[in-house]
Amino acid sequence: MRICVIGAGIAGTLLAWRLRSYPAVEVDLVTGVPGPDATAASGGGVRGFETHPEQRRLAVESLAELFETPGLLDQAGYTETGSTYLMAGYDGLEDAVAEVEHVHPGSTEVVDGSTLRRLGWHGLPDGTVGVLEKRAGFIRPDHLRALVIYQLARSENSRVVTGPVLGLVPHPDGSVTCRTPSGSDRYDVVVVAAGPWTPGLLTGNALPADQYRTKAIQVAVHRVAGALPTMFVDETSDLYGRPTADGGLLLGVDTHRWSVPPGSSAPIHDLTAQAVRLAGERLPHLRLLETAHTVTNADCYADPPVLTLWSVLGSTHRLFTFTGGSGGSVKTALAASRTAANTLLGTGTNTRTTTSRTENKRMTIMEPGTRRSTDATSLTRYHTIGIGAGPSNLSLAALYKNVTTEKLALFDSRPVAGWHTPLLYPGVRMQTGWMKDLVSLVDPRHELTFLNYLVTSGRLYALINSQFDSLPRIEYERYLAWATERLGVVNFSSRVDSIAITDDGFEVSVDGTPVAVSEHLVLGLGTRPVWPDYVRNLPSGRAFIADELGVRMPDLEPHKADPIAVVGGGQTGLECVLRLLGSGFTDIRWLGRNQWFRSIDDSPMANELYRPSHIEFLQGLNRSKRREMIVDSRYSGDAITPGGLRALYQGNYDGLLTLGRFPVTLLPGRDVTSSELLADGLLRLNCSTVASAAEHHDVRHVVVAAGREHVQAPFSDDLRERIDYDDDGEMLVEPDYSVRWKGMNGHRIYSFNASRYSHGLTNAGLTQLPVRAAIVLNSMFDREIYPISDELCAVQW
């Protein structure tokens, strides 16, 4: 069966994605006119409660699929904010809420006006009630849409065809011809999912479109001061909004402007001012600062307001529309696309009951570059397999592609490209310069330099003129994602759980199934957060690692005046303190074990430690002397960015001017030894101090930033027994980053990030990424592919 889906918004792309997973189905997705659309303009809000019964069912089921499919949850960029839905009470509301509760127990409740006032809402009409929903938030629909389109374009049974549609011709047998700039194709089924372009497309081809109307939508993102609300809809004033990922507030108000042209982007005069005025009345504690940007577009509406299939010409033809929601199809598109696909293919019930483990894996949207073996009896053979797709292995893959035609693949457990994503707060900066990217130190003419990323993405002048002392860490992550997409060698959502040695080489298994074999193996496994014993007995919602701070922030909002502790005196600890300080917390205790919170030594002499010449020098020392020197110089890198400490002190002083006291108390020389939950609900941290005196701190929450530990390679028992280990139980790593092991037979294992006391401070950092990768390639191919020259050095080690 050949099916054409017209429209590359979130509804159309998800429908095409569903259809292509069925056997014997070929799908073409026809894109529309280039430019902004409703998906790009969408606020991305997702929740379960809706007042319309069918809309509610689809929203509940869509939210359930998100939560039950971790890969999809990550790929959609879900951020939990909670939701508040304000309206006049009506008969049947309790039953409606019970429907949400049935699928998401403990998530939803109805509250009265007095409770809403305690939550900060004011000026509400008498009789207003609120539906509070904990498991709600927003996704990044444009990002999800892009991932789907990328996969459709590279699938064997789907195509992405450049539009616009120039003509639709229904035939007597029910088939439909679709004409685009690239030609005409005849399909068994055509579905028009073109959002606000739907009415015009139908009427332009003499087809009925009376039930559809277009409507203007406009939202603005504001900088704010004060506690942010949850995502909300206020039916009593037509105001709606949600927090943004960078701490701002997206606000909109119903435009009541119908029959606008699709793609309309002309701002509606005074609408933003109206939203600001209403927000000031409803949320007086919230202070709106400047408007960061405004987005205006159009979407398609119908009656009833449900995203569903509609037959255009009745049952004799297979021409449908898939649009006509209430303008918020993001909330319902997952379930609605499943229902629509089932209806089109006659596969039975349209109501979702559960999502199996198999379906979760099949329906995961893979990041660009994904390749997964589906036949465990016919393994794909590679020259080199890398475990992990972090900066180290990406650097290796980038240099590799320019010097050999041999095949390389990287396997990574994450669903999409990322780098310490949970810690990427706005304002967080890198500790290395931008020239130290994946390739430049050994191949500055490579296409994957950071400079080329800036030029091709149009960001060069904006970044230069921003005059950053240190690069934003979010920018570096985006650079890595850009490079990953262009390399096309990463298998995401592929957690390697076994590496065995066979006669054919290294056999790699994912989820217990062998998927690939290779001549050589490169380990780039990275690190994971340390979870100290002294906080393991505390409630997980009250004590958590720094990586969880972002998702925990909505729960912490009501406790901004309560004491909160950050344990860990390194860079991550500082970033958590800055995030809390910037979010309005007024009693932050920062505890660290060292005598003071040390900043990085960024002097010219300290930077000499990060040159190839110093790495070479270290290799000539005996093991004990090398370890002694590395420990002595650790604070040249394992410390805090000086600018970060300056930002903390300045923010703390600003707090002093406002509060009359410092909101952050710095507590160096404290070693937390144990903890306990007190009868009054506070958490007590028991510490030893530099003066050996016992000390305790009672706080409401604890954020643990106690460092990171290496992830161990999942070697089979046989392979693990062949590895040579040192006295500390660590793998013995040679100067060329190869691992010493018995019975190599020409097969080599290389390891990044796990040889600190043999290769020095550059082992796990970003400063020498391409140098390390070049050394490995020279060793792997037994010739000098990339010369490593560092002779012009004034220091004689």
UniProtKB/TrEMBL annotation:
<comment type="pathway">
    <text>Siderophore biosynthesis.</text>
</comment>
<dbReference type="InterPro" id="IPR006076">
    <property type="entry name" value="FAD-dep_OxRdtase"/>
</dbReference>
<comment type="similarity">
    <text>Belongs to the lysine N(6)-hydroxylase/L-ornithine N(5)-oxygenase family.</text>
</comment>
<feature type="domain" description="FAD dependent oxidoreductase">
    <location>
        <begin position="2"/>
        <end position="341"/>
    </location>
</feature>
<keyword id="KW-0274">FAD</keyword>
<dbReference type="Pfam" id="PF01266">
    <property type="entry name" value="DAO"/>
</dbReference>
<dbReference type="Pfam" id="PF13434">
    <property type="entry name" value="Lys_Orn_oxgnase"/>
</dbReference>
<protein>
    <recommendedName>
        <fullName>L-lysine N6-monooxygenase MbtG</fullName>
        <ecNumber>1.14.13.59</ecNumber>
    </recommendedName>
</protein>
<dbReference type="InterPro" id="IPR025700">
    <property type="entry name" value="Lys/Orn_oxygenase"/>
</dbReference>
<keyword id="KW-0503">Monooxygenase</keyword>
<keyword id="KW-0521">NADP</keyword>
<keyword id="KW-0560">Oxidoreductase</keyword>
<keyword id="KW-0285">Flavoprotein</keyword>
<dbReference type="InterPro" id="IPR036188">
    <property type="entry name" value="FAD/NAD-bd_sf"/>
</dbReference>
